[in-house]
Amino acid sequence: METAAPHGNRRWWVLAVIGLAQLTVVLDGTIVNIALPSAQADLGISDASRSWVVTAYALAFGALLLLGGRVADYWGRKRAFLTGMIGFAVASAIGGVAQSAGELFAARALQGVFAALLAPAALALLTVTFPTGRDRGTAFAVFGAIGGGGAAIGMVVGGLLTEYASWRWCLLVNIPIAVVAVIAGARLIVESRATGNTRYDWPGVGLVSVGLGSLVYGFTQAEDGWTTGSAGGFIGLGVALLVLFVLVEARSNHPLLPLRIPAQRDRAAAFLAAFLTGTAMLGGLLFLTFYLQIVLAYEPVRAGLATLPMTAAIFLSATVSAQAMPRVGPRPLLAIGPVVAAGGLLLLAQLETTSTYAGHILPGLVLFGLGMGMVFVPMQNIALLGVDPHDSGAAGALVNAAQQVGGSLGTALFSTIALTTTTAFVPARTGTATAQLDALVAGYTHAFAWAAAIVLVVTPIALVLVRATKADVGGEVAE
């Protein structure tokens, strides 16, 4: 049997610990981006290799997520959570004191390894701690809001630390957070693990790890063109290996990812939503940062602070959505949220070089954040709804993997769209600085428009696939 989960008020403290770990993992995806120019200058990293500061983390994280989820299920979710948190802190310390590019790249890869253990363990613990009822919706609202707002918070914290301390603190800041999380987690979290068949599916591990890693790497290289050998070849290899992985899992009696998890229609909708929103969020953050710093000439700290209204909107919307979901069910929220978010992105797609923050950017940010908050709560909830406790780590890993692969795709896709648009724009203009800026903004706005189109796809998916009722998410059954 599964070990009993914490009950009463204690489980809200468990949620705080899990939320702290989730914030650390999500925040680290963007906090280093702001510090990258300073780290590059300090360590003498070349322009050609600097992207490995980001890629090394994404590659290890994306490749090992499903294995991390199964390790959490079989080895123990509390044990995996604490080990992941400690390992993440150690890797952060190595990166924080790195004296060469190679040391920093290795540290970032090691962070990704332990994040792949930590993230699914945290989501699995959340599931077994809040298995049913209204409190489950509230818990997932907090978790979803942290996941959605953490990237923006990372840019603010990264800017503050880089400008007023050192880029090294963008990594070292994880250490005190980890100390608090480990001490509190050791005291508060009750161990739980899967029972029965706990054999590892090593062929599946190899196929999905190399497949996801190849896919993520291919996406990160696609900024130079989708048909280049390094991009097209790795993406093709990744797709082929993942198809083979599905065939192997269908025949395994101890699969790494039981196909019953993504096959259930509500969960399938949630996983697709995770992938698509992960893709669109990059369109909402990456090019917004470029616009703020290049067009409006904001300093990094100011640019980070400028994104906070979006974070506030996500938290507000997630809170309201958690209260509404037991009354209306997850389907309306998951269908309406993308429309609202797309509306915000379309407002950003109207930006020009003369646009102002208050008049043009702020409304789009707030609308995008409100829509994302409406999506995150039902998405996270139904992604693990009805999952057997034996498989909660694997299901949590699949949610994270979908978002991670989506984010990598978003970076490559929108970068390619923006670059193609900018390049096509330049010949029709004179070579003045104003014309060059107009060309850049044209690229950014095309990326926003495509991000809006992608996030809108979640709406028909929700309407067609989601069948979960309000009773399934802690609401009352209609008389």
From TrEMBL:
Residue ranges annotated for the Major facilitator superfamily (MFS) profile domain, each copy included: 14-470
GO molecular function annotation: transmembrane transporter activity
User: Subcellular location, in the record's words?
Assistant: Cell membrane
Entries under InterPro entries matching the protein: EmrB-like (IPR004638), MFS (IPR011701), MFS_dom (IPR020846), MFS_trans_sf (IPR036259), Sugar_transporter_CS (IPR005829)
Enumerate the transmembrane spans: 12-36, 48-68, 80-99, 105-128, 140-160, 166-190, 202-220, 226-248, 269-291, 303-321, 333-351, 357-377, 409-428, 448-466
Instruction: Output the Gene3D superfamilies linked to this UniProt entry.
Output: MFS general substrate transporter like domains, Multidrug resistance protein D
Give UniProt keywords alphabetically.
Cell membrane, Membrane, Transmembrane, Transmembrane helix, Transport
Q: Does the keyword Acetylation apply?
A: no
Q: Does the keyword Cell membrane apply?
A: yes
Name the domain of life: Bacteria
Which SUPFAM superfamilies does its entry note? MFS general substrate transporter
Which GO cellular component terms, listed alphabetically, does the Swiss-Prot or TrEMBL entry include? plasma membrane
Membrane topology, as annotated, equals: Multi-pass membrane protein
- Pfam hit, one: MFS_1
Q: What is its main location?
A: membrane
Give the protein name, as stated in the record. DHA2 family efflux MFS transporter permease subunit
Give the classification, highest ranks.
Bacteria, Bacillati, Actinomycetota, Actinomycetes, Micrococcales
